[in-house]
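COURSE: Structural Biology Practicum
ASSIGNMENT: Worksheet 4, Part C
STUDENT ID: 0417
INSTRUCTIONS: Below are two proteins. For each, the amino acid sequence is given first, followed by its structure token string. Answer the questions at the end about the second protein only.

PROTEIN I
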Amino acid sequence: MTDREPFLDRRDRLDSLDPALDPAAMRKQYQAEGLAEQDLATHPMDQFTRWFEDAARAALHGTVYEPNAMVVSTADAAGHPSSRTVLMKQYDTDGFVFYTNYDSRKARDLAENAHVSLLFPWHPLARQVIVTGTARRTGRDETAAYFRTRPHGSQLGAWASAQSSVIASRAELDTAYAALEARYPEDEQVPVPPHWGGFRVTPETIEFWQGRANRLHDRLRYVAQPDGRWRVERLSP
């Protein structure tokens, strides 16, 4: 026997609570201006720059939290998907870069299946950017250059965490970190872990999603062409 409340009883009780707690009743009417084809940049990364700068400015005013946060979705060789939020650390005409432990689940997935999706969820701006493409590892020189910019504690954390592996307790992680902290004090350089590095996602499609009233959102998607140019298509919301 258990003293846990049955789920159905809890659900019935929630039905009688404030509608603000009911997911089916939660609605936000988007009043943002639309996104028209003639307003788009010729290259999708230029359009991304416009929107990212808008999100970064909103972050300065406390409207958006971590504008470089993105959801990375991968699938293994059997097609089993997984998603997680990571921080985008660079973008240019070649794509988007993030860093991770190469033994993590996302990295193992990408070793088996290089296809990946990225999602930038800028909810306060009623905007999303959705990217599909393929990922490849960054070079070690590029990885090392970025690693040197990380705070000392984050450098130690890259060594302390065997990302995605099962551990016995939080104490195990804290003990590993403390040992590294003693070995590499603040004024001593931390070596770049051989199992840690970057991925660059080369986009094949980039969709710019702008929320509109009555759920009639604007969705404009750039599609890469064999000649290096990009085709723009409008998707129904």
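PROTEIN II
(use this one for the questions)
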Amino acid sequence: MTRYRTIATLFTFAATAIALQTSPGLAFSPEAQQMCSDDAMRLCSSEIPDIPRITACMVRNKSHVSPGCRAVMDREAAAAATSRKREAAAQ
């Protein structure tokens, strides 16, 4: 089970970063890892280790993730959008 927990944690980092379209320099927060790991295992374990499929699964199942995970995803998506706006304005 520890191996699956590790895979889920890695998946959560990668999938959320891709799904939220964050820039490569932004790290996935420890809070998001903590809040979303169980959801990733519960909803998308059949997709592990294929990151694009896991990402699609999490996006597809966003309405089924826990409230804590959804809040973190929404908050990080808003932060990423703000960062993209700043980058666009600077150019």
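ANSWER KEY EXCERPT:
Q1: The mean pLDDT is 76.
Q2: Helices lie at 2-19, 30-44, 51-60, 67-90.
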